[in-house]
């Protein structure tokens, strides 16, 4: 017999009717041999044998009773509960896909609850034991009939919090497999073309000088940026004819009418890559094997779980 209700004899119903007691009524059940052991329950039916009361097995264990032992019953009314905190006695409870629905279905068989009880609820072919740790409002017991009861879960007995691991510590990455250096940088010119050999771990070559083109001053001279002008490359027209650009300096700036609304400065400025970008350092190119992809850059936005040692 599951649930938190007991079965009493028909004579008990007659006495309650004569006393004009409003039903349903709950009872405090005490073990006379140890008055500190008590629990609370409602009544399921009045069909038990005279002089006998049928209790669920979990209630017998709670009161440390054997079959045929005497019990003491005292009627009472308890306030409607607002919140209970329960603790599953087995980590197997975490395997339930919808614990809320299981609890709602199981609590139909309970009329009242008291703190310290270890109740039992069925689920498929299993039986789970739940410890009632706290009840609100505080008191001997609360009624769970026709009330909106909030349930708070404590970690099950034997539950161990999983250890947090950084994403990079879980599995070997492509960076480790191909020994790729993601910290390397190289110098580029205004067009974004490399002018120095990539240096692992940052910086250009030894002494800060790359292997760019040398000037006419000889090997000891400083490397000068290559002269470059936009729109001077070669290409093919739609007709298949190969053409070469004349650059931006080949055509003079056209004059404008005096009544034009175009506003020009006294010194026209031609915007080119040289005027926008200077020599700078960018992440070095990744030389990967053919057909390989790389997703191994460090995640700067990865955050550890709240309250963990990694966050501190």
Automatic annotation (TrEMBL):
GO terms for biological process: ERAD pathway; ubiquitin-dependent protein catabolic process. It comes from the Eukaryota. Residues 188-227 are annotated as: Disordered. Residues 2-73, 80-156 form the Ubiquitin fusion degradation protein UFD1 N-terminal subdomain domain. One of its GO terms (molecular function) is polyubiquitin modification-dependent protein binding. The keyword NAD does not apply. Residues 200-209 have a biased composition (Gly residues). GO terms for cellular component: VCP-NPL4-UFD1 AAA ATPase complex. Keywords: Ubl conjugation pathway. Belongs to the UFD1 family. This is Ubiquitin fusion degradation protein UFD1. It comes from Rhodotorula graminis (strain WP1).
